[in-house]
UniProtKB/TrEMBL annotation:
It comes from the Bacteria. Residues 10-322 form the Enoyl reductase (ER) domain. It holds the Pfam family ADH_zinc_N. This is Oxidoreductase. GO terms for molecular function: oxidoreductase activity.
């Protein structure tokens, strides 16, 4: 079968197509033939040798992560044979392959008729979107600022914030097209975060400050976001797309503001039953059409380098899929 890996750090050109034997599922695992693979932006940073912190450390040679949608072809020993033939989705550390092995506890059974883009969001992107809103303790009527609102996770955060009763959703993005896209997802106000005065624009839109800021950019965006919080406002950080995690002086929190982080891995470890309930809720929302992941482009596995170029251009609206 085919697999994408890289053996040295660098640009998209280091991504190589390899031929390897098909994997064999072990007990509690299934073998999935991939039909669609959703790419993750963090892999562009890892591929360049960036983000090599304890949080993201990955040795070479390195495979690409992703969210895989496909059909179960085989199961391992002591694994339910009824899964064979089922359409499933899962997050994988070695996703860009024709065939992948996945543990059954992390499988999502895809509802009939659900499009591949939305199905690909169920293992990771949608649970993160819901998780950051829950970490921010959103209550009905509150104002929410969503950074990177046109991204693979950000546009789902916008949808879920409105569904959960946010009063006003302010979206930030880097272009007019992205802001239009975020409004189409339900955002009430759009602000271009490349404008030097973006915090002033947010304060104009929400004179009393925003109740919740959700940030996956890190760096300067994270630091300046504190200034737009209302008293008792909450900032949730869940990524570092800028390449810098960022830091906040403790004294900045004395103005009745709080900062917390969110990690899906940590959420599964802390309360797997709650994570399972959240996933079931999101799957039902998707099946009913209340949650939809936009697909910017779909390319073949052989063009994975172009997928990374698109991700690094920051031009995509929603997800980018690969079709093996």
């Amino acid at each position: 079968m085919r697999r994408i890996r890289y053996h040295s750090y660098g640009g998209p050109e280091v991504l190589a197509l390899e031929e390897i034997p098909a994997p064999v599922p072990k007990a509690g695992q299934v073998l999935i033939r991939a039909a669609a693979i959703a790419a993750n932006f963090v892999d562009t940073q890892l591929r360049r040798g960036m983000a090599q912190t304890e949080l993201y450390r990955r040795p070479l040679p390195r495979s690409l992560t992703g969210d895989v949608v496909g059909t179960v072809e085989a199961v391992g020993p002591d694994t339910d044979p009824a899964l064979i033939g089922r359409r499933v989705a899962t997050a994988s550390e070695d996703a860009f392959c024709d065939l992948i092995v996945a543990d059954t506890p992390r499988l999502v059974l895809v509802p009939d008729g659900l499009d591949a883009g939305t199905a690909s969001a169920l293992p990771m992107a949608a649970p993160v979107a819901l998780g950051v809103l829950r970490a921010g303790r959103l209550t009905r009527g509150e104002t929410v600022l969503v950074h990177s609102a046109a991204g693979a996770i950000g546009h789902l955060v916008v949808q879920l914030a409105k569904a959960l009763g946010a009063g006003t959703v302010i979206a930030t993005a880097s272009t007019a097209a992205k802001l239009d896209f975020a409004r189409a997802q339900g955002a009430d106000i759009g602000v271009n975060y490349t404008d030097e005065d973006w915090p002033e624009q947010v304060r104009t839109a929400a004179p009393g400050g925003v109740d919740i800021v959700l940030d996956a950019a890190g760096g300067e965006i994270l630091r300046r976001s504190l200034d737009v919080l209302a008293p008792y406002g909450r900032l949730v950080t869940y990524g570092a797309a800028s390449g810098e995690l960022g830091s906040i002086p403790v004294t900045d929190l004395f103005a009745l503001r709080s900062v917390t982080g969110f990690s899906l891995i940590a959420a599964y470890a802390a309360d797997p039953e709650r994570a399972a309930r959240d996933l079931a809720e999101l799957t039902e929302c998707a099946a009913q059409g209340f949650l939809h992941a936009a697909v910017h482009a779909q390319l073949p596995l052989t063009e994975t380098s172009e997928v990374h170029r698109l991700l690094e251009s920051r031009a995509q609206l929603g997800r980018i899929l690969v079709a093996p």
